[in-house]
Design goal:
Helix content is 20%, strand content 27%. The protein has 313 residues and is α+β, with helices and mostly antiparallel strands. A 4-stranded mixed sheet has the order 12-10-14-13, with helices on both faces. A 3-stranded mixed sheet has the order 1-5-4. It has a 3-stranded antiparallel sheet with strand order 3-2-6. The radius of gyration is 21 Å and the shape is globular. The chain binds zinc ion.
């Protein structure tokens, strides 16, 4: 049931998982009630994108509670594993004291690449649903408070009966190469000093992902791209994106014209230039949890030195 490695980019940190989402059970109130009464059921408490993790300096894993220990909050079904263990998420404040020194709150950015497959999938799923529940509490048609369905994967309006589903915002992220196979890396105006990445942007209403790639690259750098190739995707629920990865080619004879509203700079890098800049710590690449890092390494042809350290205890 593992969903790792389905992308040509290999195993993306937040596109992993081993737990069956058991979608057919989401409206089965009797089954859900029985699962919630089962002391083997595991509950992941999520608050503002964070959950408790246990980190022993080497391994990171999620800290679950049993249903009778779970705080009150919006509950949602995450799934069931091959040992018939059922997992729920609850959006609620994390406890103020932790059961051990090695336990602390952490976000997907911090631990998404370090968690084992099962836990990476559960935390990504839980954060995405909790973010939706936390920000979509009322009917957009008449403003009534909505009521989550028993499995917590939709909500309905008690006044007009309209149904509402979790939102996901598609975004494109693309590595552009020139005829010399150099890659275009940019520094966002809002980022700290040395950080660079490939270009990215949201898909607009009424637009295809491919159209968004062409538009975003042109808007941000003045470069016109052709020959798009889809690479793979990973959820990025911070708060609700799905990142769609692409490669694109920039025909010869073009000059970069940076949109300074969005970017501080953008430049072409050969593989040798990029490696030298990273080794000299002149540039910092995106962290391993990001699809950007995998797309850059896919172009580079192997791992690049990391400028990111694991979280402190
Ligand atoms: Zn309504």
């Amino acid at each position: 049931m593992s969903s790792s490695g389905l992308s040509p980019l290999g195993s993306l940190a937040l596109a992993r998982g081993t737990v069956d989402r058991v979608t057919a059970r989401r409206l089965d109130k009797d089954w859900l009630d029985a699962a919630w009464k089962d002391p083997r059921t595991r509950v992941l408490v999520v608050s503002e994108g964070q959950a408790l993790v246990r980190y022993d300096g080497e391994h990171v894993e999620l800290v679950f509670v049993s249903p009778d220990q779970a705080p009150p909050g919006t509950r949602f079904l995450l799934g069931q594993d091959t040992d018939s263990i059922v997992y729920f998420g609850v959006s609620a404040p994390l406890p103020e004291s932790y059961p051990a020194d090695s336990v602390r709150p952490a976000s997907l950015r911090e631990v998404g690449a370090l968690l084992p497959d099962r836990d990476a999938g559960l935390l990504t799923h839980a954060v995405a649903l909790a973010n939706w529940h936390d920000t979509h509490t009322h009917c957009p048609l008449d403003g009534s408070a909505t009521v989550p369905d028993p499995g917590g994967h939709s909500a309905s309006c008690p006044v007009d009966g309209s149904e509402h589903f979790p939102r996901t915002d598609p975004a494109v992220i693309m590595l552009v190469t020139d005829p010399d196979d150099r890659c275009l890396l940019a520094r966002n105006a809002a980022w700290p000093g040395r950080r660079v990445s490939i270009l990215a942007g949201f898909v607009e209403p009424g637009e295809s992902a491919e159209q968004a790639v062409v538009r975003e690259v042109a808007e941000e750098t003045g470069i016109v791209v052709t020959s798009l190739r889809y690479l793979g995707s990973q959820p990025w629920p911070m708060p609700r994106s799905l990142m769609l990865g692409f490669r694109a080619q920039a025909p010869a004879g073009q000059v970069i014209a940076v949109d300074h509203e969005e970017l501080a700079e953008a430049n072409w890098f050969s593989r040798e230039e990029l490696l030298a800049a990273v080794e000299a710590r002149e540039l910092a690449l995106p962290p391993p949890v990001s699809i950007a890092r995998h797309i850059i390494e896919d172009w580079y042809g192997g791992p690049l030195p990391s400028t990111w350290s694991p979280p402190s205890r």
